[in-house]
């Protein structure tokens, strides 16, 4: 931990670098990160709000959008963390700084983007739906847990991919079906006749409670469930513990293999 | 290891250090290989360090010489903490600064100035610590206005100058340098040598890998000759270089085998 503190400036620089590289050289820059969820929202609204009109969620585009931006953060962070150690091989071969800095910086960059986009979506949702409530104070807690959760998974994915180059393709193959079973265009509560499916989608998928909690606060203006809150905090701690352990075990040969 | 705590800044202790590298075209594995346990295919691993024991007291200047593939660069990477040992131990006191891979680690789209900040940060310096040295580093590098130009436009000489300027200003207790000085022009080489001498005078330890016999004799008091990962000579530099030259004039075991000799 003291080591990590000593290298705070390195972390800061990596984040700033990455942010700059991301937003340089594209005309729309940050706007792309709004356009992406907007386009997806449009498509899902068309399919599930217009063509198959089964949804009972009011202001369906806003319902969709809140879930989508959380998912996009989750998937983008993992997908960009996976090759991060290989991309920064030159730095790894140069000095023995804590290697966690690299995936952590990647996740932080995605988090910054996510917070900006979520902020916009939240403001529109709160104003449009009048869902402003005192429970917004819990939003930072859920977001912090989400960051820790994704950081833990990213550490694992990054160090595994450095050793086994098929981790990124496996991940990208898994993310697509994962997206469809995540409560993005539906809420687990919509499933009324299949108890097992409902349970799986609500609790076995670790992303679901995050989406649910954020949507409860931002879209419904209600308190997140106590079970949901406990879940996100615990799963975040578990993901970080697993990620750090795996990273610690597999990092020593990084300068040789990347 | 408790020994690490009692080391003085600049002290280096290698204790029965061994390290082998497997040679593979693609360095990462795949899950398939892991599952099928086929990683042992290909050429046998190369023993880069074989039971090396060295004690370097603070402030000593040590040259490491040997044939290509003798384990010189691996030794530096182990000392730099970049590559772990298979067995044995390495302990170093104080801040280690290494100039190993020329230009590597330099963000090519970033300016020389930004690379100075990154170089310092990679070695664990804070923003304030690096900014304090920024002007000295820029002046030393002699890059002038190029300091604000992306380093991808630099010549190899400019690369080295920037790399060396950074490494030489990070207040190292141990300075590890791998055969990179030769790239600069003569005037800059002289300046580097003077800078190194200054650092050594202040108590820094220098470990230098080079094929430049004259450079080793000028800068190093002690020479370690490596062969096949083993220390085959360790002593004063004049004798060490003599040993090395003799070794260079004798055929290698491999070339004897190639010639079909007994």
Structure description:
The complex is a heterodimer of chains A (258) and B (262). Chain A is mainly α and 258 residues long. Helix content of chain A is 74%, strand content 0%. Chain A has helices at residues 2-6, 8-23, 32-51, 60-81, 84-87, 89-92, 101-129, 139-163, 167-181, 195-204, 208-220, 226-250, 254-257. Chain A is globular and about 55 Å long. Chain B is an alpha/beta fold. Chain B contains ten helices and nine strands. Chain B has helices spanning 3-6, 31-36, 72-79, 112-122, 127-141, 156-168, 186-201, 213-219, 237-249, 253-258; strands at residues 12-21, 46-56, 61-66, 87-92, 96-99, 174-178, 205-209, 222-227, 230-236. A six-stranded mixed β-sheet of chain B has the order 5-6-7-3-8-9, with helices on both faces. The longest helix of chain B has 16 residues, at 186-201. In chain B, 40% of the residues are buried. Residues 258-262 of chain B have low confidence and may be disordered. The A-B interface holds A 6-10, 12-13, 17, 21, 86, 90-97, 162-167, 170, 252-253, 255-258 and B 21, 26-32, 34, 77, 80-84, 96, 98, 100-101, 104-107, 109-110, 117-118, 120-127, 130. Chain A: The chain crosses the membrane at residues 26-48, 60-81, 102-128, 134-160, 167-186, 226-247. Chain A: Residues 28-250 form the ABC transmembrane type-2 domain. Chain A: Keywords: Cell inner membrane, Cell membrane, Membrane, Transmembrane, Transmembrane helix, Transport.
Q: What is the chains' assembly state?
A: heterodimer
Secondary structure: number of strands of chain A:
0
Q: Which strand order do you get reading across the main beta sheet of chain B?
A: 5-6-7-3-8-9
Helix content of chain A: over 70%
Largest sheet of chain B: 6 strands, mixed
The helix/strand series of chain A, from N terminus to C terminus, equals: HHHHHHHHHHHHH
Order of helices and strands of chain B: HEHEEHEEHHHEHEHEEHH
Structural class of chain B: alpha/beta
Q: What form of chain B results from the Cα inertia axes?
A: globular
Topology, number of strands of chain B:
9
Q: State mean pLDDT of chain A (0 to 100 scale).
A: 91
Name of the CATH first level of the largest domain in chain B? Alpha Beta
* Gross geometry of chain A: globular
Percentage of β-strand residues of chain B: 15-25%
Summed up, the helix count of chain A is 13
The fourth-level CATH homologous superfamily of the largest domain in chain B is: P-loop containing nucleotide triphosphate hydrolases
The Cα radius of gyration of chain A reads 19 Å
| Count of separate structural domains of chain A | 1
User: Unreliable runs of chain B, pLDDT <50, ≥5 residues?
Assistant: 258-262
């Amino acid at each position: 931990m003291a080591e990590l503190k000593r290298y705070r400036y390195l972390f800061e620089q990596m984040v700033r670098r990455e942010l700059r590289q991301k937003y340089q050289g594209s005309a729309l820059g940050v706007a792309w990160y709004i356009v992406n969820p907007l386009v997806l929202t449009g498509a899902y609204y068309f399919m599930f709000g217009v063509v198959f009109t089964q949804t009972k969620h009011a202001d369906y585009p806003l319902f969709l959008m809140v879930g989508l931006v959380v998912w996009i953060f989750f998937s983008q962070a993992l997908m960009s963390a996976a090759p991060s150690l290989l991309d920064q091989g030159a730095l790894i071969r140069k000095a023995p700084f804590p290697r966690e800095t690299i995936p952590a910086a990647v996740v932080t960059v995605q988090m910054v983007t996510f917070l900006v986009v979520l902020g916009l979506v939240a403001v529109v949702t709160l104003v449009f739906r009048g869902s402003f409530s005192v429970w917004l104070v819990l939003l930072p807690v859920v977001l912090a847990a989400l960051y820790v959760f994704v950081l833990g998974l990213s550490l694992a994915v990054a160090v595994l991919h450095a050793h086994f180059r098929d981790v990124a393709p496996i991940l990208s193959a898994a993310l697509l079906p994962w997206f469809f079973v995540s409560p993005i265009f539906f809420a687990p509560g919509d499933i009324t006749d299949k108890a097992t499916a409902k349970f799986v989608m609500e609790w076995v998928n670790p992303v679901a409670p995050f989406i649910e909690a954020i949507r409860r606060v931002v879209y419904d203006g209600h308190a997140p469930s106590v079970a949901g809150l406990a879940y996100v905090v615990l799963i975040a701690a578990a993901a970080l513990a697993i990620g750090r352990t795996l990273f610690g075990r597999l990092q020593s040969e990084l300068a040789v293999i990347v | 290891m408790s020994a690490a705590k009692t080391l003085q800044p600049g002290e280096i202790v290698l204790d029965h250090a061994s390290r082998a590298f497997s040679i593979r075209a693609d360095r990462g594995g795949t899950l398939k290989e892991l599952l099928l346990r086929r990683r042992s295919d290909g050429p046998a691993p190369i023993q880069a360090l074989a039971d090396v024991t060295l004690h370097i007291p603070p402030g000593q200047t040590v040259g490491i010489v040997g044939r290509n593939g003798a384990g010189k660069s691996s030794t530096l990477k182990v000392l730099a903490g970049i590559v772990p040992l298979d067995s044995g131990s390495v302990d170093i006191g104080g801040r280690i600064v290494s100039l190993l891979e020329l230009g590597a680690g330099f963000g090519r789209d970033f300016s020389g100035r930004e690379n100075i900040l990154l170089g310092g940060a990679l070695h664990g310096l804070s923003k304030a610590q690096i900014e304090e040295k920024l002007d000295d580093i820029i002046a030393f590098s002699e890059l002038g206005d190029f300091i604000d130009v992306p380093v991808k436009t630099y010549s190899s000489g400019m690369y080295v100058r920037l790399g060396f300027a950074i490494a030489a200003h990070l207040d190292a207790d141990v300075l590890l340098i791998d055969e990179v000085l030769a790239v600069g022009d003569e005037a800059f080489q002289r300046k580097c040598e003077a800078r190194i001498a200054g650092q050594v005078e202040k108590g820094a330890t220098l470990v230098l890998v080079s094929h430049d016999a004259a450079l080793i004799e000028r800068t190093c008091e002690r020479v370690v000759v490596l062969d096949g990962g083993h220390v085959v000579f360790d002593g004063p530099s004049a004798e060490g270089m003599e040993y090395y030259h003799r070794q260079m004039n004798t055929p290698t075991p491999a070339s004897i085998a190639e010639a079909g000799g007994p």
